[in-house]
Amino acid sequence: MREQALAQIEQIVAVSPEDTASQFELANTENRLSHSLIDARQGVEAGRHLARMVAILGELARADPKNALYERSLGVSQIDWGTALRVSGDPSGALAHDRKALDIAGHLHAADPANADFCSDIGIDNRRTAATLIDLNRPAEAEAKARLAQQALCVPSAPANTYLQAHCGRAWLADGNARFAMGLAVRARMADNVAVGCAQRTLLRDPANAIYRFDLARANAALAIVLAASGQSAAARQAFHEAERNWQALRATSALTAEDAARADQARRRFPSLFSRDNGAPTPG
Q1: What pLDDT, in 10s, does the model give residues 31-76?
Q2: Do residues 170 and 195 touch, judged by C-beta distance below 8 A?
Q3: Which label site among 88, 136, 196, 278 has the fewest CB atoms less than 10 Å from its CB?
């Protein structure tokens, strides 16, 4: 479907190449297609679409340098390109794009500090940069980025704003992952518990939202790993059971992505004595 939409908008652009609205929609279509490829863990292919998105937006921005929408979209393309490279096993390449995204978000926020979207972009970009830094075995830097993400996303209005609440939870999860990589299991457990709470609240408000269910499964899986590493076997099994329950719900609606399937397998492999594939549930005992 997305490939068909891309072909259709390409035809429109070919007929009217001077139409900036069509050019912008082409860039957005490339971005949407890249997201599906990232979810399928096809990072290299996603990167090709993001490279085209950057090229299109670069032309638009050069023609209209004061257009904040074009500049913000360039930032989105850069942070997504970083994720694509990280998924494909190139965290060093990802970090270069993450930094470009942060530079763009910082420039936009400095120009319009009251703009909530620009503030949240800073938080999201810092959180995703934290994930890259963890892959690069630089957990202290990752934790600092996760804390910056929390400052931008975990604001007083966040509990009433499902979008911010979800991203706040992801920032706490990044913090927990960084702390765990630093050997700070107690602090990692605290952060993961906050992430689980945020994910539970967002899913309660929108039970049909697959993304929020992903968040809850991922947070519980991370918590299970921390608990297992701390010798808290019973609590670890319970947390992993909650993760599996949500992954199963996603499978039942054909919404489980390759990314989340890989996360589930990673959690099982890490502590095989605690977790079993039998009936998709943790081992008893």
Answers
A1: 888 998 888 889 999 999 999 999 999 999 999 988 999 999 999 9
A2: yes
A3: 278
